[in-house]
Design a protein that fits this description.
Elements: H1 2-6, H2 10-38, H3 43-64, H4 67-74, H5 86-112, H6 119-145, E1 168-171, H7 178-187, E2 192-196, E3 214-218, H8 224-231, E4 236-239, H9 246-251, H10 253-273, E5 278-284, E6 290-295, H11 306-320, E7 327-333, E8 335-337, H12 348-359, E9 361-365, E10 370-375, H13 376-388, H14 391-394, E11 398-401, E12 407-409, H15 410-420, E13 425-429, E14 436-439, H16 442-448, H17 456-468, H18 482-489, H19 497-524
Parallel strand pairs: 1-2, 1-4, 2-3, 4-5, 5-7, 6-14, 7-11, 8-10, 9-13
Antiparallel strand pairs: 10-12
Length: 525
């Protein structure tokens, strides 16, 4: 409840509170009129009924009606439900209206020490409150979604994060996740600005070049000039750029530290300088490391790889920078799977699926370890949900991005694949990889109404179809494996000397910060 109250912007919601209060009073008047109609009889008795109900409305109902906006506020009527997917939104609103009515009835009983309305009128009041408060929102949504009568645009505009037509800057948006996210944002009528060095090529987004709402900036996220020119004029930033995965980071630790941490520090400073308020950062559930606990956003992090450590350090830098004009949101991604415009087969579900189809054998390392999973298209939807949400809800917040239903052991993943690829043989081997975590995703469902739409089975089936149809000719090709590709490409060195110096300065600042933390801990001990 405290979270709901904290996230309210009363200047913004005051008109909706007033409208809801008017509808509650309308429901009461209609219900009371129904009671008057049912109580008609001889003149003296009828006048007595009317006077009693008038007195009840003025001196009991009117003061107690304040219960409704209070309970509505606490149940998310004016904050979280605004960003929910429809089926969650209407359920949440119905629950809030029902709870408010029950609280009112209880307060009414305590005040009057008895029932003041016939049961039929009380039932009518409950139905009317739900019908008016929820029905008005359904009507508003339907009208907002209706296309204009003439000259409809190629893409419907659904933008809550800004009233202007400022572009969303996606840093590192030309790859596995970003290629889907770009298309989804364009389909919503957004302007998209993409900053990417295209280390893995531009085939995933090449068909977007020339789109009237798509802007391309080819550049390195470590290059000051590229970042400054891209951030200037942006309405929001989604930061995806990173060397992703433990093997790829271990192969080139220096570049991983520069791209995954130092560049993030530089980008956030430039964003603050240009007044870009929204900053959505792609982190990872791997920050939880090795644990047998069922973890959520309040759980301690325990990174056991360089990749996870750079994500933890970037999260801390962003949250420490939060201020009146800078509002970061951290999304800790579950293990991603599924087909994309730039497929990847260094991800466990995708790799096991390809091996089952092509080789008939799946090799599992530590099959009893838990992982949370999420389809790549759902990842894009999660970023859009965070982008659409009111700043009062997501500012400074960290969310696990996924779905609790998609927590699986690797053995369970193999069983799903075996079912879809009959005859697959499974071999289990133990190795030193100790990552093990089950993750709770209740917070993102509660705050943003987010829930994954693609099951593990559906994602595997879609990938199988792409492999069988030869849309993906050879899954072992280096272009589908980050670590292999980067090994062949060589070290990702900054081309400008000044960029190298800036990255080194941020890296040194991080080392000093970590060293200071160690010294403090030693003194405490």
């Amino acid at each position: 409840m405290r979270e709901s109250l904290k996230s309210l912007d009363w200047r913004e919601i005051a008109p909706r509170v007033a409208a809801d209060l008017v509808m509650v009073h309308m429901a009461a008047i209609v219900a009371l009129a129904f009671a008057v109609f049912m109580g008609r009889g001889d003149g003296a008795h009828f006048a007595e009924v009317v006077e009693g109900l008038r007195h009840y409305y003025l001196f009991t109902f009117a003061p107690l009606s304040a219960v409704f906006p209070a309970v509505f506020s606490l149940t998310g009527f004016y904050t979280r439900s605004r960003t929910y997917q429809p089926r969650f939104k209407w359920t949440t609103l119905a629950r809030g209206a029902t709870v408010a009515t029950l609280v009112f009835v209880f307060c009414n009983f305590l005040t009057t020490r008895g029932a003041t309305l016939p049961r039929s009128s009380a039932i009518a009041f409950v139905l009317l409150v739900n019908g008016l408060t929820i029905g008005s929102r359904i009507l508003k949504s339907a009208l907002a979604a209706a296309p204009p009568r003439s000259n409809p645009p190629a893409f419907s505009v659904v933008s809550n994060f800004t009233k202007s037509d400022e572009p969303v800057l996606i840093i590192g948006g030309g790859g596995y996740i970003g290629s889907i996210l770009c298309r989804k944002l364009l389909a919503e009528g957004r302007r998209v600005r993409l900053l990417d060095s295209f280390v893995y090529g531009n085939s995933a987004v090449r068909d977007l070049f020339g789109h009237p709402r798509f802007e391309l900036a080819i550049g390195d996220c470590r290059n000051i000039q590229s970042v400054v020119s891209s951030v200037n004029g942006a309405g929001a930033i989604i930061h995806l750029a990173a060397i992703v995965g433990d093997p790829a980071c271990e192969q080139d630790r220096g570049s991983a530290l520069e791209i995954n941490y130092a560049a993030t520090r530089m980008v956030l400073e430039i964003a603050k300088g240009y007044g870009v308020e929204r900053f959505v950062f792609a982190s990872s559930c791997s920050v939880y490391g090795e644990t047998d606990e069922y973890v959520d956003e309040r759980s301690a992090v325990g990174p056991i790889s360089l990749y996870a450590q750079t994500k933890v350090d970037s999260e801390q830098a962003l949250l420490q920078a939060r201020g009146g004009k800078f509002h970061p949101t951290i999304l800790r991604l579950a293990t991603v799977f599924g087909n994309s415009y730039r497929p990847r087969f260094d991800l466990v579900v995708n790799l096991l699926t390809a091996k089952a189809l092509q080789e008939g054998v799946i090799t599992l390392y530590n099959g009893q370890q838990w992982r949370p999973f999420i389809h790549v298209a759902d990842v894009a939807d999660g970023f859009i949900a965070a982008l659409n949400a009111p700043l009062s809800v997501v500012s400074g917040e960290t969310y696990n991005l996924g779905d609790s239903r998609l927590n699986y052991t690797l053995t369970q993943v193999a069983a799903v694949i075996q079912k879809l690829v009959p005859g697959t043989r499974v071999e289990e081997i133990e190795n030193p990889d100790k990552r093990n975590y089950r993750v709770c995703f209740d917070k993102i469902q509660r705050d943003l109404g987010f829930q994954c739409q693609t099951t593990l089975e559906a994602g595997v089936q879609d990938l199988l179809e792409a492999l069988r149809s030869k849309k993906i000719a050879n899954y072992t090709d280096a272009q589908y494996h980050n670590q292999r590709f980067l090994k062949s490409a060589g070290r990702l060195i900054s081309k400008q000397e000044i960029d190298s110096q800036v990255m080194a300065a941020f890296a040194v600042a991080l080392e000093n910060q970590q060293h200071g933390a160690v010294n403090v801990e030693s003194r405490v001990r």
